[in-house]
Amino acid sequence: GAGVSQSPSNKVTEKGKDVELRCDPISGHTALYWYRQSLGQGLEFLIYFQGNSAPDKSGLPSDRFSAERTGGSVSTLTIQRTQQEDSAVYLCASTLAGGRETQYFGPGTRLLVL
Amino acid sequence: AQSVTQPDIHITVSEGASLELRCNYSYGATPYLFWYVQSPGQGLQLLLKYFSGDTLVQGIKGFEAEFKRSQSSFNLRKPSVHWSDAAEYFCAVASDNYGQNFVFGPGTRLSVLP
User: Fold this and answer.
1) Among all residues of chain B, which has the CA nearest to that of A33?
2) If you measure CA to CA, which chain A residue comes closest to B87?
3) Which residues of chain A are modeled with pLDDT < 70?
4) Are residues A74 and A33 in contact, defined by beta-carbon separation less than 8 angstroms?
């Protein structure tokens, strides 16, 4: 596609439920990032995928969070047993080859945990 | 590890006035520096970037930024602000580290008075 797409754009869930957030990066981009942006806050790095290398999971806040990237393209961020503090906007970005290259962001998924 | 500070959490200017948003970074090598803008409910859009060469870089929407190595700064400027510039602005520094190689500042929220 022309840009990074994310779905759903909004998600409301009940505490304790699992959610899956999807990111479709720009075609041909090998690097993909997930960030979390809480209300009025900056960007919190979650996880980074680069090609076939093992992902950098150092930003995941707990073991309830996981992500995978299938076929080097689409990525899914899964949050298990959601908590109210998980409410945030989840942003995905991709770059052509990682490193210092410009990141292109999707519109984000706004998650609300009741 | 690199870091970014944006000293101003919130700035208010009148439409037509000039603007300067401050960004200071900490990084041992030559930094790659970026400014992104986030309009309400949107993802982040790249305004401009500095990799090397001319220390004054021009971006979209009439913005420019100047890299000053001696001050570890990369301030964003615009000579005349428009109401549509009201948004959140993020400065970022990139390194060659794998994974969390992009570090974003906390952001500066810009309000524009008519």
Assistant:
1) B99
2) A40
3) 1
4) no
What is the reported pLDDT for B100? Answer: 65
Which residues, 6+ apart, have CB-to-CB distance to A65 below 8 Å? Answer: A46, A77, A78, A79, A80
Q: Are A100 and B96 a contacting pair at CB < 8 A?
A: yes
A93 interface with B at CB cutoff 8 Å: yes
Q: Which residues of A touch B106 (CB under 8 A)?
A: 41-42
Cα–Cα dist B48/A100, whole Å: 14
Greater confidence, B25 or B96? B25
pLDDT digits (tens, 9 = 90+) for A69-91: 988 799 999 999 999 999 999 99
E-only strand ranges, A28-74: 31-37, 44-50, 65-69
User: Residue range B89-106: average pLDDT?
Assistant: 82
pLDDT of residue B2: 81
For residue B7, pLDDT beyond 70: yes
CB A107 within 8 A of CB B42: yes
CB contact under 8 A, B100 and A45: yes
Give the start-end residues of each E strand in B7-55. 10-14, 19-21, 24-26, 32-38, 44-50
A21, A103, A110, A112, best to mutate vs chain B, most B CBs in 10 Å: A103
Interface check for B27 against chain A (CB to CB < 8 A): the answer is no
Partner-chain contact A42 B46, CB within 8 Å: no
